[in-house]
Amino acid sequence: MSFIKSRKHSPATLAAIATLAMPLALHAEVNGANAEPVAQQGDSKMPEVTVTGRAVNNEFQIPQRSASDKFTAPLLDTPKSVTVVPSEVIAQTGATSLADALRTVPGITMGAAEGGNPVGDNLFIRGYNAQTDTYIDGIRDSGSQSREVFAIEQVEVVKGPNSAYGGRSSAGGGVNIVSKTAKLDNFYNGSVGFGTDNYKRVTADINRQIGTDSAFRLSVMGHENDVPGRGPVGGDRWGIAPTIGFGLSGPTQVNLSYYHMESSELPDTGIPFNNPFGSGPNVAKNGNGTPVSVPRDSFWGLTNRDFRDTETDIATVDVKHDFGNGLTLRNVTRYGKTSQDYVWTQPDDSKGNVVLYGTVWRRANTRVTETETLANSTALSGEVRTGTLKHNFSTGIEFSREDTDRGTYLFTPGTDNLLTKNTVCATSGAATGYNCAPLVGANANDPWVYERALSPAKSGIRTNTRAVYAIDTIEFTPQWLLNVGVRWDDYRSVLDTPQYTLSGKTTPAVHAEANATFTNYQAGLVWKPAANSSVYLSYGTSSTPPGNDAGDGLDGLSVAVQYLKPQESRNFELGTKWEVLARRLSLSAALFRSDMNNARVTAPDGTTQNVGEKSVRGFELGASGSITNAWQVFGGYTWLDGRVDDNGFTNTAPNGAPAVWVPSPFNGNVFPTTPKHSASLWTTYKVLPNLTVGGGLTSMSKVYANVNNNKWAPGYTRFDAMANYILNPNISLQLNVQNLSDKLYFDKVSSPHYAGVGAGRSASLTASFKY
Question: What is the pTM of this model?
């Protein structure tokens, strides 16, 4: 194969889904008797509210509990910072991906891909890498990918150490995606949307009750769009997610679900940084470390080389039995397979071409990977009493196996400058084999046609974990509660790369193993000055072993790190939560400090290394719910002070001379991907019975891309707007305008070579149907 283009699904794919989304009067069923109960203001006990996608006029109520069995108290009484993004906010903001939905949560930044770090969702929470801390219905979702929202009920962001809940994890927190499941109800929801930049989106969400005790639900999606302001960047995707539930009103419930999504796109290259020189004759030519000043649509990729195809399949069997005495036993078995195949141009500035010559080396990052997971979780939860104490507990065991096969592509004659046989690009164009491009005016359609083949350097990573945990919320009195938790994990990861020969050179086989057992704890004391409030003080730990990403991320297993101890983190948090205005509005505030030993970050050469010790201090504010019957808000603010306390030592001796080790000059620097200030706000107001308008902002201060603190993306504030008009009880129209001011900003960092460019202004009009 000489080249490959980003594949596009045929219009028939979108058309087929559109036929599901367009309601037909002959098949419509209006079922108003299944509306959710509304809490009475005089209730002494706070009711539980299940957040679904059927709220009237896209209004949302504050969630009372997490969907996870491991949360043994209502969110109000949970001594952790937890932000729940309901489906209504996802719909109102026009989010179509997990990354879009998380934009409404301050304290989260998105990381950029690199040579060893795949394209996909790469989260940093409170400054810590949380790339592997994404869960679907409480089970870790391994494998790099870009996740959709069409089958999501809500997204829960848990901040602070997460190991007592999920095992190996970061100190920043984790994201739990709550899937749509079958319900004892009949409804037919759908949407058809069109917009600028070739935006087309069709969804359908159909639920049908079967008999008196079972139900079937089907969610489907077809999507296509270009990225506003980013030249040829764009793609399409489609997905389907059926679920069927049995015994939904009885003591034994069985839910069977399947999720499939495929995507095909031309991936974005981003914009390179002004590469600063530390010494030598070129210091005077230094840039200031920010992304270079070029037109927003500058693109250095190649349309006849670059592509990204992904495919995800997840099958789940969820069985729950209620014994009727306050005890519930649940067993979940899940099989998942995620594959990613791409050639993606990175505008690499590491050779100084941008500053010296005004050129860019078209570095080809490639990946062919497949991750298979098999997990089983058994949990016993419920409520018991011991004397005068009431216990709400959850205890369980978990087993998982993750198998990742990872490879790359080779090109003939290669991707170096054909004139110099290296990556120095003093000139650009045909003579360089189009491997060097001008900084301004690069042509994505340059005739780059080479041979491509899989590299023999393929790696296999096998990770096995087993764990046991116990979490308990102990109620001493209605005013005093204690939440405690402990989890023990046994972790085994093995890397094997067979011996291979390339260009006449034989590379020996590589074998590495990381074996670790670790125990993590959490404890939180909760005082309730009133039934609608809580004040808490909590402590938690986390452990991140080498190879935490199971072979498909930034924290890869290697011979160099296999014997390193797990990174150990601890977090102290003082916070308060209040439900005010007849419990329609949730307010929260928290002060926290996290410390990590043996922390690892992306070094200036792009590798992952231990950097000693890291600390993050901060506080955050949050609000969610209704101020009045017509006015709703969702948002928050986070302040972070992240520091590299001990970056180890560095060799200052000239090449070839005996090493001279001195303390790192980066000690005390700001940690990468950690903005000091970040804020988000989404608010809507019903100006007329049938008309709701809304708007929001996302704001972030400067973010460093490396521990040197000499490459950084400037801060920004982005504004969005929405208007929703209800034509009748079944049909509504929604207009979304994203990035109102067409702000040029950078939404992804963490690579020391380039920054991801935020999408420009766009508009979409969506017709939604609810029957």
Answer: 0.89
